Records
---
Amino acid sequence: MIWKRKSQASIETNGAAETEIPVADTQSSVTLVEAFPSTPFYERPANEGELWRDPTAREPGPMLPRFIASAADDIESASADRLSRRRLALRDALGASQPVVMREAFAGRHDPMGRLITAIEEQRVHVVIYGERGIGKTSLAHVFAETAREARYHVIYASCGTAANFSDMFRSILARIPRIFHTSVLPNSAEAEAGDNFDIMLPNGEYGARELADVLSGVVGTRVLVILDEYDRVVDVNFRRDVAELIKNLSDRAARVQLIITGVALNLDELIGYAPSIRRNITGLPMTPMTKAEMRELLRMGERAADIVFGDDAVETIGQMAGGSPYLVRLLGHQAGLITLDARRDRVNEADARKAVELVIREWQASLPRRVQSNLSREEAKTHWQLLVAAARAGSSADGWFTVDDVYAEMGGALSALAIERDLKLFVNTVDLLERREGPGDPHFRFGYPGVASLLMMSAAMARLVA
Ligand SMILES: Nc1ncnc2c1ncn2[C@@H]1O[C@H](COP(=O)(O)OP(=O)(O)O)[C@@H](O)[C@H]1O
Ligand SMILES: [Mg+2]
């Protein structure tokens, strides 16, 4: 069965979830639910256009690319090309450009899901989900939302942008809560019939956490869960202060509203700031790398969809290179699967997996700006390769920033802290690969161009594998 991907609106509610419908896995429906661009570094084999080529047509040069599948509901001709269908099915199952929104496409993660449910249902606290990019926070939030809706929670998902403003954000969230859930509104009253939402009870213009909590403490007949995804992107410090204040107000009044905040961070404080007054009302949920078994389960979805098998050695290679990141498991599994299908085989072997890694590394490298590419190939970069890889690892655990101590820990004492600091500065000043943030406490560094860190780590892992 192939499931339709839902388009990603920034805010969605219970209603939106109902539009997620399974579609039959005929080729035409698969084609119609195209949700993300085809992977750029995949080259279509020359013979694949044959299906749609008019045999009498002549082209002056080599044949121009064609669509893989027909958009007509023509099951007969669609099934004629089983290979293209398997490719599309594989992309649907392992494509890495979208978060998972449904349980059917969600691998593993029983433990964080269980802890999230317990925190919401039994402890009645607010939850902060944190971890590195691509680790699966948004996916967990979506699948959790589905589960909570089944238990009649009213769930609102909102993605934060850099420009998030407290009043605007929560006005649009409250516009998704029907007013019939407010204690002041009687069933069958004029207000209930009007179909209004909570937002009309808010003051006009800007308002604060207290006024918002006043309105939200009136929730009855359901419990409201507000998911604030990508919280780390919010730059306005007032927004974070107001949200902390809101948590305090909601908790003090025992309101039937709980927040679930997710973001890229190393720890709780980094995301919500140091706020001792709300500590006992919050639970932190760190998203950790997937286990081997979970990564295997993820690859199995590709196996089922495209009717292929990942051999144990291929699974091992992909698992090692991905290091528990579901994003990388999908990226590598997808590419390795395509390589296997193109070779007209059903079993993904280790060589396929390695080729997939090479493809991904090459593609990442090519996507870097020229300037960054040439800096990476400078002599200084080669002599300090170990340090750069350690720095990449140090930054990967959270938002990219790392300290001298972090790199020292990664290098296991191979270099003194003093030497590390000196070398890091070299890459800030002479070779423009790192940037430096001054402020209270230790100086922080990070790679000036985000793709560089992943590239370094993957190349290093690949080198270890080949050695
Ligand atoms: N449990 C899972 N099962 C299958 N795929 C997952 C899972 N968690 C994450 N993914 C995939 O990994 C990628 C990154 O996930 P996402 O939820 O966007 O991470 P984050 O929000 O932490 O950056 C997406 O392509 C998503 O489909
Ligand atoms: Mg996310």
---
Amino acid sequence: MKYIKELSVTANEQLNEGCFLLKLKSDTALPEIFAGQFVNIQAKNVADRILRRPISIHDVDYSTNELSVVIQKVGKSTAELSKVKVNGTLSVIYPLGNSFPLNEANPLLIGGGVGAAPLYYLARQYNAKGIKPHVLIGARTEKQLFCTEKFKQVSHMHISTQDGSCGEKGLVTENSVIKEEFSSFITCGPQVMMKALAQKAKEKNIKCYVSLENRMACGIGACLCCVCQTKSDGNQCVCSEGAVFDADNLIW
Ligand SMILES: Cc1cc2nc3c(=O)[nH]c(=O)nc-3n(C[C@H](O)[C@H](O)[C@H](O)COP(=O)(O)OP(=O)(O)OC[C@H]3O[C@@H](n4cnc5c(N)ncnc54)[C@H](O)[C@@H]3O)c2cc1C
Ligand code: FES
């Protein structure tokens, strides 16, 4: 079941130069939410951005009925959302999309840039199953990393920065942890990064699950503007049949 509700903003924290974290509280119990699902948020006061914006769920707190999201300012809606005041409200549709696999024995979770956001809740969901996963985060520079202390509490953490300012210097695909044994890669970030990781997974003969960030409009499978092509099922709506796909099944 999907909900469309006005959620109260209970926190708006700047995480780094471009990213901020919003906590959104429901006045009723949250439904069960799985890592990899996303919300569609309406930014107010943006006349030429009438469409809601899809944003991954970063964490869920059932004890307070709050969900949190990490948003990077890239355009008008995200800039407007960055200014939202605590005690204000936002119209949110949730939870949307499918979810990351939760039955992997030893997955490596790999996030690039703001794509790291949903991996925090995924790591926590693995913790609940008694697994402390390895997480690899990549960014251009240390200044673009966020929530690293939180990630360290729930995972074995590895970092790559392109300028070497934190962790190993280089791309995530070059990080030494990639060479270790894993049951699968689960990844979210720029498509070029996810494609390179899918190739690495193929070489290691393991699965790679990717969370696609195609441009979306309706978010519920009605407008077909977000389709991707798959080998087994033809065209699929990323918003309703994804956003998580087995990379091996994608034609991309
Ligand atoms: C399933 C899903 C989950 C997402 N999760 C997050 C998240 O957790 N945090 C976050 O910050 N962003 C996330 N995004 C991306 C986010 O939806 C866009 O950045 C946002 O819609 C941009 O809106 P805007 O009005 O600010 O920018 P616009 O003015 O619409 O666009 C500004 C610039 O960003 C580019 N852009 C916009 N949307 C996307 C996109 N989907 N992929 C790549 N480039 C885009 C545009 O081409 C343009 O160059 C997610 C997208 C999807 C589909
Ligand atoms: S956004 Fe409309 S079908 Fe996916």
